[in-house]
Amino acid sequence: MLPELLGEIITRLESSEDRWPLRKDVVSCACVCKRWRDVTKGIVKSPSNSGQITFPESLKQPGPRDAPLQCFIKRNKKNSTFYLYLGLTQTFMDKGKFLLAARRFRHGAHTEYIISLDADDLSQGSNAYVGKLSSDFLGTKFTIYDSQPPYEGAKPSSSRASRRFASKQISPQVPAGNFEIGQISYKFNLLKSRGPRRMLCMLQCPSTRPKSDDELKNDDESKKPTSLQNSTSSTGSMVLKNKAPRWHEHLQCWCLNFHGRVTVASVKNFQLVASVDPSQPGAKGDEETVLLQFGKVGDDIFTMDYRQPLSAFQAFAICLTSFGTKLACE
Question: Average pLDDT in the 146-163 region?
Answer without folding.
Answer: 71
